[in-house]
Design a protein that fits this description.
alpha/beta, Rossmann fold, binds NADP nicotinamide-adenine-dinucleotide phosphate
Length: 243
């Protein structure tokens, strides 16, 4: 069966996605930094699913390594799913550009560096799918997380353009915009259970949307309507809401 390459494979959402694709008979490349930490997960998944699961080292910030990383894969993947992300600290980022830089580079620049290389390959092969996990935070800048949000907004715009470019080559690009998801990233935050998805539910929704060749997925679905309302609040009012 074909390979799916999962970027940021130590992420809780990525691990749920890995299980979902393995269950559906895909072989996997799990790419992460300090990927040896995934060895037990990968072995267990390979035994349960009877699929091939290979761990590959990747630091999304090491853009100089991305070309060699991709072209060294033993077999080119049918699809790529990127779950890499860094929420960081909005407060710190406002005064320390190093934190701003890390948020932008992890969520945007590094992902673009790698997807540029993969997009070239998929375009030439006239096949493939690219799933990028962005965020509802990219739909409108808010005081509480606008540096992370602006990097995700850039990623959403990049994926939209990539979808337009690759359409005529038969390559699918799916933008995923999760709302709250219960993962390491949100651990300790007081999140409304009604608005918070579990990683397994996000993985199921991504698999379904990717197989149906959808373009954009909000998960939970309710976030599509929440963001529609948020996007339409007049700026004069929005700036007074303090969110
Ligand atoms: N959780 C939410 O509420 C939520 C909402 C909207 C969007 N998202 C997005 O969903 C995606 C998955 O996040 P998650 O919630 O599953 O959080 P997570 O468990 O914290 O996953 C983020 C992953 O990114 C990896 N990463 C960070 N910097 C990296 C680098 N330089 N090179 C390689 N990997 C790196 C981390 O690896 P290490 O383990 O090595 O640090 C971590 O495994 C992210 O893009 C996130 O922005 C999450």
């Amino acid at each position: 069966m074909s390979y799916v390459l999962i970027i940021g494979a130590k992420s809780d959402i990525a691990q749920a996605i890995a299980k979902k694709y393995a269950e559906n008979n895909y072989d996997l490349y799990l790419a992460a930094r300090q990927v040896n930490e995934l060895n037990i997960f990968a072995k267990d998944l390979a035994i349960r699913s009877k699929q091939t699961v290979q761990c590959v080292e990747l630091d999304i910030l090491d853009t100089a390594s991305h070309h060699t990383f991709y072209h060294a894969l033993p077999e080119k993947p049918e699809g790529v799913i990127t779950a890499v992300g860094y929420l960081g600290s909005q407060d710190l980022a406002q005064t320390d550009f190093k934190e701003t830089h890390k948020i932008i580079d992890t969520n945007y620049t590094g992902v673009v560096s790698l997807l540029n290389i993969i997009a070239e390959d998929f375009e030439q092969r006239h096949s493939g799918f690219i799933v990028g996990i962005s965020s509802v935070a990219g739909d409108r800048g808010r005081k509480s997380n606008y540096i992370y949000g602006s990097a995700k907004a850039a990623l959403s715009a990049y994926l939209s353009g990539l979808r337009n470019r690759l359409y005529s080559s038969g390559v699918q690009v799916l933008t995923v915009k999760p709302g709250f998801v219960a993962t390491k990233m949100t651990a300790g935050m007081a999140l409304s259970p009604r608005l918070t998805a579990q990683p397994e539910a996000v993985a199921n929704a991504i698999y379904k949307a990717q197989q149906k060749k959808n373009n954009v997925l909000y998960t939970k679905g309710l976030w599509k309507w929440i963001m529609l309302i948020i996007k339409h609040i007049p700026e004069g009012l929005f700036k007074k809401l303090s969110i």
